[in-house]
Give the backbone structure.
Amino acid sequence: MQEKNNKWTLKNVVTLSVFTVIIYILLMIGMIATNILLTPVGAYFASPGISALFAGPFFIVMVNKIEKRGVTFLLSLISGLLFLFMGQLYTFLVYVMFGILTELCYLGKNSYHKLVNNFSAFFLYMLALSAGGFIPMILIREQYVEWYKTVGNAESVSAMINVYGTLHGVLITIGITLVGCVAGCLIGFSILSRHVKKARI
């Protein structure tokens, strides 16, 4: 049953911190692995979906353990700040915006324990990873491309434009992210029901 007391405890803060670090590391591993194994264009397409597959279970367990208002916003905010530390201003802004939207997914009774609510929030969280690229490409294309040239090489800039600068590229990225989120969430709920709850972690 979803907790009526929405007051955060020290245990909640520690849990959020640990899982946020794990999830962020998995995002980085997904990005690095796809860049090594795939072409630059392929990496842009696949990275969010691959990362979602591995980060999904940890997201599900974290939300079900904490089940407090603000958990997904704080996850998004901290993730965004980590990207900001790496110089990704636009990604930070998108993570904050999408973080607010993730909180709307948990309106209603027992929402932190329902697959649909968790999937919706996790999809928005993972979508921010690529939306940090395609939203600026839609709104401020020339400015974003010029900025991207200062942080990436010619090959990565070309790949980014080919993926985030085209409608079919954005749709393919969203589709792959969607598939990865579904798989990650299903695995997470399976782990939650079979192991975590039984062990009372």
Notes: Residues 167-199 form the longest helix (33 residues).
